[in-house]
Fold this sequence. Notes:
By secondary structure, the chain is an alpha+beta fold. The chain is built from 14 helices and 20 strands.
Amino acid sequence: MKSLLALSLSVLLCCMSLASASSPAPSAAKLAEATAIAEAEMKEQQIPGLALVVMQGDEVVLARGFGREDIGREDPVTEKTVFGLGSIAKQFVAATILQLAEQRKLSLDDPAAQHLPEFTRLPPELKIRHLLSHTSGMREEFMQQELKELFDRPGTTFAEYVEAASDAPSEWPPGSRWSYSNMNYLMLTVVVERLTGEPLERTVAKRFFEPLGLHSMQLCALQPGESPGNARGYIRREGELLPHPPENVMLFRGSGGFCGSALDLARWTRALAGGKAISAHAYRQMTTRAPLTNGGKAEYGFAIDLGSHDGVQRNGHGGYGGGFAAQAAYYPDAQLTVVVLTNRNFAFPEHIERKISRRLLGRPEPKRAEVAISAEELQRYAGSYDVGIPGWYPQTVVRDGRLWFELSGPPMRLPLVYVGNHEFVAADDVDGYRLTFSKDGPGRELRLVGMGMMTWYGRRRP
């Protein structure tokens, strides 16, 4: 009886696997709609160049480029054009750490201080897994004046940067809350290089890029876009697109220093999920919500955001920096991969990706019917919120009878629409920012789905 039961279960699991693997590819009409969305958003956001790749399972079903690699050249963007990937590079570090753990060269539960003894202010309970999941409490690099000055100084070495970073404080008990911090992946880069005895870029090339044939993946140049096949990053100032100034990529390799094509990034995203880059067990760890000491869970694993949008699970990550903005998303139930790369800093590729993915998945447009709210009630949601980054406090203010969302860096003033149930959405984009306030005392706590589609958690400041 036991063997018969085991056989039946095995057949069932096999059938389920085959059913999942046979998810139909998007129709030609839907792919045409995806192309039209990319073209419209590129024009709306004034993006010089954009690359879009869609995969169904292991098959590339759409690969297109739009615009130019460099507004000073005629070279068109293609799916093979190399863009900056920004913080998506964190996935390369996380995957390496998980492989090293499987090789018993470290444990995710090792105290971080064990591998980083020069970081003298680390709490003893701070573990490697806290760094991977952004639940460490380590202060963001760019909110530390000494590090910012070193970053801006030409010729700063990685060793000098790490020495200065080693005095960084932990802002709150590890595991007690989630807050994104590039410091975590600077520290993990040091751990990887010490355990492997070689530069991070060589390690990830040998472990992932070369075996998987991802030949465009590489450490970014000091000034990307100098030759055909490589996009130049742009920033927008006073209505004009300008080349982004050079950056010392050696200082932030593991947190955001890699470049690659949309085609290779899509293949990487699928390889992670499909067991070709890391083991199935390691990917489950990457896509498990980080537990918090209060019993809750963050909507983030190890270098993968785990939000659920429109009722569909989405495993994704974005990247900003160097004049580039990137987004890569994987929808496990449909085995759908969507990648959008742009060469304009603070474009919003995550909004483009969501519009395209919703269309491909056949999901309805989110409702955004405005609900009436009194001026007195509206005022209860106004305030300044602590999201775990000292000195960087998102604000909500009442202006002209409407709630506005404001950021100081990057500067943003965004009108919101009240949709009921303590929830506000961006007035001009259904896929823009979404703010949900606590029901127990409106305005005391804030859940913010914002840049990169990541979910931030804020506490109202006094």
